[in-house]
Amino acid sequence: MNISYKLLDTSKRGSLPSGDLPFGALRTDHMFVADYHDGEWHDPRIVPYGPFEILPGAMCLHYGQTLFEGIKAFPHPDGEIYLFRGDENIKRLNHSARIMLMPEVPAELQMEGMMRLLDIERNWCPKEHESSMYVRPFMFATQDSLGVKASASYTYCVMLSPSGPYYKGGFSKALRLLITKQYHRAVSGGTGSSKCGGNYGASLRAQAYAATKGCSQVLYLDAANKYIEEVGTMNHYHVMKDGTFIIPEFNDSILRSVTSLSVLELGQAGIIKARTEHIALDDFLAGLKSGDIIEAGGFGTAAVVSPVGTYLLEDGTEITVGDGGIGKHSRDLYTYYSGIQTGRQAAPQGWLLKVPRYV
Ligand SMILES: Cc1ncc(COP(=O)(O)O)c(C=O)c1O
Question: What is the CATH number of domain 4-168+347-354?
Answer without folding.
Answer: 3.30.470.10
